[in-house]
Amino acid sequence: MQKKTKQPRDKAKSDNVLNEPIFPESFGAKGDGVTDDTVALQRALKATADKSVLTLQEKTYAVRGLVIGPGMGGIVGRGRLAGLAEEPVLTIRGTAKPAMPAVGVQIRGIAITAGPSKRAIVVTNARDTVIEGCHISGLGDVSRGISLEFGCVNTAIRNCTIEAPKIELQSLVLISVQSEMPDTPGGYFAPPMGQIKYLEETTYDNVIEGNTIIGGTHGIALSGACRTRIINNRISHNRHRNINICPSSRYNIVMGNNLLESGSSAVAMAYGSSYNLVANNVIMSTSTSVGVDRDSIHSYVGCSHNRIIGNTITGDFRYGVYMAVNASCNVVQGNIIKLTTKPDLPDDFTVGVVLENDWPERPLPEGTRYSRQNFGSAKPHTWGYEDSTGNVVQGNVIDGCTCGFYVSQIGTKLAVRGNRW
Q1: Preceding amide of 346 cis, omega within 30
Q2: Is 111:79 a contact under the CB 8 Å cutoff?
Q3: How far apart are CA 420 and CA 337, in angstroms?
Q4: Which of 129, 141, 188, 261 has the smallest set of CB atoms within 10 Å of its CB?
Q5: H or E element: which one contains 17?
């Protein structure tokens, strides 16, 4: 008896079937911007197994919160999701029991109007997610645009536009990347005092590239994040900071970004954020909309081994690069810093690079040596326990400042060489 041979699978035909688009109208969605389409879109998403995607036509789909779980493909198209409630408009997440991440979800080309929702997109316990070419707007105070939370690995956020109001706000972060949150006030030190508490790094190897990010309090904020690449974004008119790397975030790269009008700092590294690279960014302040920008880049309170290299810093910042309180082994190299003064301020002064420790907050808590920087009152978790030592300031060009380099009460092993001012 002749043995039958198994015919090879037609891979091309099979893959076309797997990627065939699914339309929400097939599941009863109206897309009129008024009807609650949550149930219809959620049913459609469940049908996107095996790498299919839900395709939105040029309509507005009002929803109360969609969830993309393991096995679901994602959402693409030219349509808009409009939030109807406080829950996130769109959540991508894996499952805890059984432990299974969401893998390979794609969100491409759609628009999201947050409305009453506190977060437009939330990603948690997911790998290889792509969010590309999306437009997010309608964000309110105490909210997030895109939030990468615990267990996000190898996420790509590319070529998106995220817009928020340019007004005084409590907290509105346009892209947030975080691991486990700290459990103490400020969360940056653990017993014995003076020891930096590094968080469990569950969120790492994510990319934020080519986005336009406007308004809110923070453009991008990292907390306990590791190996994030923030590359070639345009971030502007944030009320507090363009990029906030705090607390305990390590090995991140901030490179080639255009940063405009930051409120207080363009790039802030603080409370144990170390081994980060901030390089080749163009940073400018004219204080046209957010008041007095204090410093362009800073590294303070337990930050070490950060490299600040090749940035171009111009405008009316008070400080070009600011380092303070246990700021050790940082390198400030090859930056061009050209600052202007504000003649309308009676105490106006500008400094290219600052390195300092102590200010007269007394009495000092037991075992401490230094207080924090020179504004605001010191708090228990912001005291310094070690000298700022081993820093290198070299090859910088500093122009137009009241003072080129300011040093106050620091430790030994400071290297200053080859600068022009």
Answers
A1: no
A2: yes
A3: 10
A4: 141
A5: helix 11-18
> Can you state the percent helix, strand and coil of the chain, rounding each to 5?
5, 40, 55
Dist CA 213 CA 208 (whole Å): 11
Instruction: Answer whether 359's CB lies under 8 Å from 297's CB.
Output: no
**Residue 200 DSSP code:** P
Burial of 83 (0-12, 13-18, 19+ CB in 10 A): buried
Question: Quick one: CA torsion of 341, 346, 348, 349, rounded to 10 degrees?
Answer: 110
Any idea how long the chain is? 421
pTM of the model: 0.89
Residue 185 has what pLDDT? 38
Q: Is 317 helix (H, G, I), strand (E, B) or coil?
A: coil
Among the residue ranges 207-216, 329-338, 352-361, the one predicted with the least confidence is 352-361
How far CA 127 is from CA of 154, 228, 237, in Å, comes to: 6, 14, 31
Which of 32-36, 215-219, 292-296, 378-382 has the least mean pLDDT? 378-382
**Could you tell me which of 330, 332, 329, 303 has the C-alpha nearest to residue 320?**
332
What tokens does 220 get? 């991008």
Dump the DSSP string for 72-92. Answer: --EEEES-EEEE-SSS-SEEE
Beta carbons within 8 Å of 390's beta carbon, 6+ residues apart:
328, 329, 413, 414
Specify the 3-state DSSP secondary structure of 246: coil
Helices (H), 282-420: none
Spacing of C-alpha 73 from chain mean position? 25
Tell me, what's the pLDDT at 2?
46
Ordered DSSP codes for 264-313: TEEEEEESS-BS-EEES-EEEE--SSS----EEEEEESS-BS-EEES-EE
Tell whether the model's pLDDT for residue 406 goes beyond 80: yes
What is the distance between the terminal CA atoms of the chain, rounded to a whole angstrom?
92
Upper half-sphere CA count for residue 229 (Cβ side, 13 Å): 14
What DSSP state is assigned to residue 193? T
Tokens of 76: 């693409």
User: Which helix (H) or strand (E) covers residue 28, if one does?
Assistant: none
Which residues make Cβ contacts (< 8 Å) with residue 346, sequence separation at least 6? Answer: none
Burial of 63 (0-12, 13-18, 19+ CB in 10 A): buried
pLDDT band at 308 (very low <50, low <70, confident <90, very high): very high
Q: Give the chain's radius of gyration (CA, Å).
A: 24
> Picking from 19-28, 80-89, 363-372, which range would have the lowest pLDDT averaged per residue?
363-372
Q: Are 49 and 72 in contact (CB under 8 A)?
A: yes
**340: exposed, middle or buried (Cβ count in 10 Å: 0-12, 13-18, 19+):** middle
